[in-house]
Design a protein that fits this description.
69 residues, 32% strand, 1 helix, 3-stranded antiparallel β-sheet, alpha+beta
């Protein structure tokens, strides 16, 4: 059964956690983290969201995201 759509009300911060499959590593090197941070900035601008706090760990990512729309 498909998951129901999640609500994303404007100007309400939400925490997101992304983990590697079976807790495997998400990043193989520091360059991977730099690339991820660049993409995060690019897509935050493209989709009009703010990312005031983020943490990149070797096997997971924490994001605090605030949609503007």
């Amino acid at each position: 059964m498909a998951r129901l759509p999640r609500l994303g009300p404007a100007r309400i911060p939400q925490q997101f956690i992304q983990r590697g499959n079976n807790r495997q590593g998400c990043f193989c090197s520091g360059w991977d983290m730099i690339a991820y941070a660049g993409w995060l900035k690019q897509y935050a601008t493209e989709f009009d969201i703010q990312v005031p706090a983020w943490v990149l760990m070797t096997n997971h990512v924490h994001l605090l995201v605030t949609p503007n729309v």
